[in-house]
Amino acid sequence: MVKNAKVAVTLGDPAGVGPEVIVKSLAAMPRHERRDFVIVGNSKALERACRTTGIDLRFGPSASEDGSTIAVDEVALDGSLPEIGKVSPIAGDASVRYISRAVELAMSGDADVIVTAPINKEAMNLAGHHFDGHTGLLAHLTGSKSSFMLLASDRLNTIHVSTHVSLRGAIERAKTDRVIATIEAGHNHFVRLGKKPRIAVAGINPHCGENGLFGTEDMEFLTPAVELARAKGIDVVGPISADTVFARAYNGAFDLVIAQYHDQGHIPIKLVAFETAVNVSLGLPIDRVSVDHGTAFDIAGTGKANHANMLSAIAYAQLMARSPRQRA
Ligand SMILES: NC(=O)c1ccc[n+]([C@@H]2O[C@H](COP(=O)([O-])OP(=O)(O)OC[C@H]3O[C@@H](n4cnc5c(N)ncnc54)[C@H](O)[C@@H]3O)[C@@H](O)[C@H]2O)c1
Ligand SMILES: N[C@H](C(=O)O)[C@H](O)COP(=O)(O)O
User: Fold this and answer.
1) Which of 120, 279, 284 to mutate to test the pocket of ligand 2 (most atoms within 8 A of CB)?
2) Domains of the chain (ranges plus CATH)?
3) What is the pLDDT of residues 247-267, one digit of tens each?
4) Which atom of ligand 1 lies nearest, measured to the CA of 118?
């Protein structure tokens, strides 16, 4: 068991609210706990966030014993510090290189877990890094065949069969094999955290297609996936109509809902737990937890960004670091 988990926190897009929520979170924790963190990014961006928020923190290449200096693993910007609140390829490129460096730390054992501040996907793609977000990029960097996005909160958890694709693409992806793989990834995660989860699969069509009246995908692909997963000993039911399954889970009937596409799972979670829900990447050889909000360019540089979500991500990351992975 890891005692004091070493947490690598990536800065996110330096033009967004990432640096602000990081410095606010560090300032909110007892000084000695700051020794467990290394920020992967640029001190200049952190210092700017300190000025914005009126926070007094010191950064250096390594943490001091008493936690008064916070460790920064410097990743040089390819240009000057990007302007706050603007999409920029320099910021997009930097945000990818922070993640890449954090993966090196995690793969080598120099970090137990990665916590990520938000990146801007437009900026990342403008810089020539053609990924759909952290989840796909992390799969690429770790040589993983697939990765899954879990959104976790106190009363509602949902893992997605697909995420950053068009609705048309999502329907194409909601096939039996992929649904089973998603059920298994979610199941294994909960088992790792010490719980045998009760899982519900959300239908893809209105009322699960109503026996083919509104589409046949539920009976063709989702019902067999549930049957096959049950045969593997997983406590899973469905498909259940997506308009009610999240409310039932929120009220305690299920520990995890399998969402068929991005917004099906994201809307309910962000509605009930925008401040506290965290985004967890599953199916990778390393652990990564993130805030569930984005770069919020509309408020970046104002000091208004709420850091509660970053604190939740850090707490969930520490929980994962204390929970050993199951051997295959
Ligand atoms: N973890 C991530 O890296 C992540 C997550 C979500 C979105 N994104 C990316 O962020 C960019 C902007 O996305 P968006 O505009 O759809 O969503 P967003 O979460 O950045 O903003 C949505 C709304 O929530 C507010 N908000 C967000 N974070 C807040 C905070 N900490 N405190 C107070 N208010 C906050 C914003 O001001 C805005 O009004 C996109 O490129 C998107 O892909 C990244
Ligand atoms: N859909 C994610 C969310 O809202 O939390 C977000 O875009 C981040 O995705 P990645 O973790 O793949 O960057």
Assistant:
1) 279
2) 1-147+283-328 (3.40.718.10), 148-276 (3.40.718.10)
3) 999 999 999 999 999 999 999
4) 3
